[in-house]
Amino acid sequence: MTDASLTSSTSPVRRLLARPTTGAWVAAVVVLVFFSVQTDTFMTAAGAGVWLESASRFGIMAVAVALLMIGGEFDLSAGVMTGFTALWVGVCTTQYGLNVWVAVLLSLVVALAVGALNGVLVVRTGLPSFIITLGTFFVLQGVDLAVTKALTGEVAIQGMTKVPYYDSVQPIFGGSVEIGGGTFYVSILWWLAFTALASWVLLRTRAGNWIFAVGGDLPAARAVGVPIIKTKIGLFMLTAGAGWLVGMISLFRTSTVQANTGVGQEFIYIICAVVGGCLMTGGYGSAVGASLGALIYGMTFMGINAAQWDNNWLRTFLGAMLLGAVLINLWVRKQAEATR
Amino acid sequence: MTTESALELRGIHKQFGAVTAIERFDLDVAPGEIVALVGDNGAGKSTLVKIISGLYQPTDGEIRLSGEPVSFRDASDARAHGVEVVYQDLALVDQQPVYMNLFLGRELTKGPLRTLDRARMARETQDLVTELDVRIPSPHATLSDLSGGQRQGIAIARATHWARGLVLMDEPTAALGVAETAKVEETILRLKARGAAVLIVSHNLEQVFRVADRVTVLRRGTQVGTRRIDEVAKNDLVAMITGLAQ
Question: CB A223 to CB B141 under 8 A?
Answer without folding.
Answer: no
